[in-house]
Amino acid sequence: MSLNPAAITCKAKAKSTGIQCTNAAVTGYKVCHMHGAGGAEHRARAAVIRKERQEIKKMVRFVTGISKDDPEANILTGFENEYRRCIGRIRWYDEQIQLIDDEQALIWGKTKKENKSATEFTGTDTTYEARRHMWLVLQDEERKVLREMAKIWISAGLDVKRLEIERSKIEAIDRTLLRILERVGVDVYSDDVRRVVSKELALLGSA
């Protein structure tokens, strides 16, 4: 039994003096091994505590947001990536469906299994009915999500917003490039220079 790394002191007290034990508590317990750590009751309590701590860690991860420098912190990038992931999942379901040898399994299968012992005909009753395969159901759910995302994209005008962002980026690159050319002695007001710069930036925008 390992000692608690946080060095929690055993909570037990001597009955005669009332003085608290100075031993370190065992991990997951409030007492040391001399005062019952490891007993059935304490083991059960320690297991509950460990489970609670694990669940808390999971929830912390669940509610922790991404950092500001994460690419998906940008709402457009995050939306586009999730849209692509949705399409990826639909294609994955397509692949799983293709692996099913029996086409009948896509529309027919076991829906109920019941053990009977209180009647004269004991045994297991298995019911087969018309039902859609799990892969088809899940794929349809993803398709619904995809359609809803497309509606949001159109209604929110995200295409326009994306173009505005790209335009502002290109304008910033344009200004930076012209400053660099000026510093190396290039006439940035030359028609040839402006034509070349505009052409290259247009190619960058369409990439």
Note down, in words, how this protein is organized:
With 207 residues, this protein is mostly helical. The protein has 3 domains: 1-64, no CATH class; 71-156; 160-206, no CATH class. Helices cover 54% and strands 8% of the residues. It is built from 5 helices and 2 strands; from the N terminus they run ααββααα. Strands 1-2 form a two-stranded antiparallel sheet. A hairpin with a 6-residue loop joins β1 and β2 (123-130). α2 packs antiparallel against α3 (134-155) and α4 runs antiparallel to α5. Residues 1-5 have low confidence and may be disordered.
Shape: flat
Helix-strand string: HHEEHHH
Q: Briefly note the structural class of the backbone.
A: mainly alpha
**DSSP helix fraction:** 40-55%
Instruction: Give the rounded overall mean pLDDT.
Output: 78
Task: Evaluate the radius of gyration.
Answer: 33 Å
The biggest beta sheet is recorded as: 2 strands, antiparallel
User: Strand fraction band?
Assistant: 5-15%
Q: Based on DSSP secondary structure assignment, what is the total number of beta strands?
A: 2
Give a quick summary of the entry.
This protein has 207 residues and is mainly alpha-helical. The chain is 54% helix and 8% strand. 4% of the residues are buried.
Question: What's the structural blueprint in terms of helices and strands?
Answer:
Layout: H1 40-63, H2 75-98, E1 108-116, E2 123-130, H3 134-155, H4 158-183, H5 191-206
Antiparallel strand pairs: 1-2
Helix pairs in contact: 2-3, 4-5
